[in-house]
Write a structure and sequence with these properties.
The protein has about 200 residues and is an alpha+beta fold. It is built from eight helices and nine strands. The protein has a single domain (about 1-199), classed as 3-Layer(aba) Sandwich (Rossmann fold), CATH 3.40.50.
Length: about 200
């Protein structure tokens, strides 16, 4: 725990999910966040983007409908202790109604340029729940209408898309895009720090 704290304090980036809220964040940063002691069921909830301009969320959640987020069984809802320093990027009113807290993705800074990004449930376990007619449309519709693919481009990957619904494609894309954004933004931060140190 001390090594993680020191890493973040010196400008490191810590990306955690789900149970790390209790087992890491609450132990190292108890003045920021904690687990509310109300574990979720195996559930899906609609989410709302709070900060659409955040670089980590760039290219995600373009549709008018609310995206669906999978809460793995016994996910840990996030209770924010310090509302001034902890920023909510994505929330869920449905999550709050069911489990007492609405944050889904949060971020806060610590020490000398350190950043902590935490999300409820595991990003690599996202699954799609088909709640609307839009979600049940084909994945080909998604890549053409919402990702800007031409008909020719969509046809080239049609074999990979043929058994997927729009909801499944959207879930897979948003997960991949989110991780890509995190990596790119952190790399920019590292490069900026290197340039400052060289001065």
């Amino acid at each position: 725990m001390e090594k993680i704290k020191e890493f973040v304090e010196k400008g490191g980036f810590l990306f955690t999910t789900d149970w790390a809220l209790l087992n890491i964040l609450e132990k190292i940063f108890p003045e920021y966040v904690k687990y509310n002691q109300r574990p979720t069921g195996d559930d899906c909830v609609a989410v709302q983007v709070v900060d659409k301009n955040n670089k980590f969320l760039e290219g995600l959640f373009k549709a008018d409908e609310e995206p669906i987020w999978w809460l793995e069984s016994s996910s840990y809802p996030i209770y924010i202790v310090n509302e001034e320093k902890v920023k909510v990027l994505v929330k869920s009113m449905e999550m709050k109604e069911k489990y007492g807290e609405d944050p889904i993705v949060i971020i806060f800074n610590y020490g000398d340029g350190g950043t902590i990004l935490h999300m409820t449930s595991h990003y690599y376990l996202q699954r799609a729940e088909l709640r609307s007619e839009r979600h049940k449309a084909t994945a080909k519709n998604y890549v053409m209408n919402e990702m800007g693919f031409t008909a020719k481009d969509a046809e080239e990957i049609n074999e990979e898309l043929k058994d997927l619904t729009l909801g499944e494609a959207e879930s897979a894309y948003s997960t991949t895009q989110f991780i890509s954004n995190v990596i790119v933004e952190q790399q920019k931060k590292v490069e900026l720090r290197k340039k400052e140190e060289e001065k």
